[in-house]
Amino acid sequence: MEFFLDTANLGEIKDAHDLGLLDGVTTNPSLVAKEAKPFLDTIRAICALVGDKPVSAECVERTYDGLVAEGRKLAGIAPNVVVKIPLDLAGLKATRTLADEGIAVNHTLCFSATQALLSAKSGAAFVSPFVGRLDDISATGMDLIKDIRVIYDNYGFSTKILVASVRHPIHVLDAARIGADVATVPFSVFRQLVQHPLTDRGIDRFLADHAKIPRDGA
Questions:
Q1: Which of 47-61, 145-159, 204-218 has the lowest mean pLDDT?
Q2: Facing residues of 110 across strands?
Q3: C-alpha to C-alpha distances, 125 to 50, 162, 173, nearest whole angstrom
Q4: What is the CATH number of domain 2-212?
Q5: DSSP H/E element including 4
Q6: CA separation for the pair 84, 87 (Å, rounded)
Q7: Is 84 a catalytic residue?
Q8: Which residues contact 2 (CB under 8 A, 6 or more apart)?
């Protein structure tokens, strides 16, 4: 499974990239707003930092014509930009146009399996089901991932399932068990994936025992 970082913070992206485990980045207007920097400059800087790895940049236009024009503009920033478009009727129509032009699209705000089916048929490169937001309304977000996986496997769709709105490591674990293609996670969750109290305790014990070993040449 691929790991994307869900952030617009260059420091977090660099830390994850330096580990050699980062496969891409997703952003949205809320995340970019937190950085208090111009939108296009932020996307451009992220693209430069991660090389050829995909970087999702979200459209804010709401009409077909507006989405296509904005999508083309965002795609022109760098070859690794993935245009992020909401999964509604205008978004589906714009996705078909952009995909036919060779522009990769990430369908965001997916909350049903039928939406995901239409996303794949429209030619989207990624579909982003928001599991955490479904959990928030007492639905089970991972049930949606299971349904999408079955549908995509039934018909051989190439659209990647990008699990979004990830709140904790169990979301990542469940997504991996189901066979999702990508999980995009906040930096805090990314760090939690490697943390375990028994690992920390074992390191402390080894270091304490190492301190008791007589020095060479003593």
A1: 204-218
A2: 129
A3: 19, 10, 23
A4: 3.20.20.70
A5: strand 2-6
A6: 9
A7: yes
A8: 23, 24, 181, 182, 183
Question: What's the whole-number average pLDDT of the chain?
Answer: 96
DSSP state, residue 188: H
Rounded to two decimals, the pTM is 0.94
CA-CA distance, 218 to 215, in Å (whole number)?
A: 6
Per-residue pLDDT at 190: 95
* 150-187 per-residue burial string, b: 16 or more CB within 10 A, e: under 16: ebbeeeebebbbbbbbbbebebbebbeebebbbbbbbb
Domain coordinates of the chain in residue numbers? 2-212
List C-alpha distances in Å: 206 to 132, 197, 202.
38, 14, 6
Which of 34, 53, 73, 84 is flagged as catalytic?
A: 84
Q: What are phi and psi of 47, to 5 degrees?
A: -60, -40
CA nearest neighbour of 4 among 216, 200, 196, 162: 162
Question: What confidence tens digit (pLDDT) does each residue in 195-211 have?
Answer: 999 998 999 899 998 88
